[in-house]
Amino acid sequence: MRMNRNRMAAKSSKLSKLGEFGLINSIQSQCRNTNSSVLLGIGDDAAAVTAQKDHTLITSDMMIEGVHFDLSFTTFHQLGYKFLAVNISDILAMGGKPEHFIVSIGVPDTVNAKDIEDLYSGILKIANKYNVSIIGGDTCASLQGLVLSGTLTGNARHFVTRSGARVGDSIYVTNTLGDSAMGLKLLNKRRKRVHKFTPSSPGLRVIKKHLMPDPAPLGTVPALTSMIDISDGLLIDLSHICDKSKVGAMIYKERIPLSKELTISAKKVGIDPYLFALKGGEDYALLFTAPENNKIKAIKIGEIIKKGRYIIDSSGKRSTFKPEGYDHFDNTARNSQGNRIE
Known about the structure:
By secondary structure, the protein is of the alpha+beta class. Helices cover 33% and strands 23% of the residues. The protein has two domains: 5-156, CATH 3.30.1330.10; 170-332, Alpha-Beta Complex (Phosphoribosyl-aminoimidazole Synthetase, Chain A, domain 2), CATH 3.90.650. The chain has a seven-stranded mixed β-sheet with strand order 8-10-7-11-9-12-13, with helices on both faces. The protein has a four-stranded mixed β-sheet with strand order 3-6-4-5. A two-stranded antiparallel ribbon has the order 1-2. A hairpin with a 5-residue loop joins strand 12 (309-312) and strand 13. Helix 2 runs parallel beside helix 3 and helix 4 packs across helix 5.
């Protein structure tokens, strides 16, 4: 437990004194919209936004204390940042631009008004980066930990699905993989709250990548055929593309990009860094397929084939891969952050 009973009571009384509508008013004043598409934001029964000429994209994510995050080693600011980041990643994975965010929270009596303010400061930090407007949501009490639920809308002139990969396409990723899973591994070893990061430590850099991921848009790619964000792990997310597109895949192990920080940290804990890159998840890099194109600003890791799913190592040896990664309903492999790396 991260606080004593007296402190818990003090924190609870502060939020109780503020009240539900006082909390909503505080959130409303913190989340003032400047986006011209928002006609009516927080404060009424529903928000109102202007209609877009392009396609509207809608995604939703939940984060539950004890399943997706542990407040013993993440700050409320970091949690808020990650909460919106994972939703933004879904919109980017469809080739879209994020736009409006609806936030619903279930608040336990261990959380006070300052904690909620810090949570929203993290949400707003990344919202400002992507010009996302917070336009509404819901608040209620929770009896079993903090619960976050978010719905993000976006728009896209031409959206991309998981089902368009074709035989002969190349497979690309947009960033290094495995850092987030390693960050979680180190956090579980430390078991204490992390407030500051020093750039000199590889371990702290991968921890930050876990706590505050930074999804990035792909940009213009001609003839993009399929795309997904790597949230559950490279192998399982590539398998989603294969399943939907009814194709196979071949990836080259040594082409999978690893950061220097991951390599150093993995050596210290005595685990193959590729285990984190292949199965770790929560990197929120984009995984996509497209015809061979030298102008694509991404890392090619393989090709789409007619059938079968294989990893080729540096010696040319071919082994079959399975859709291994994080599964929300696989209780045998879950830890407090929803990550399978042990």
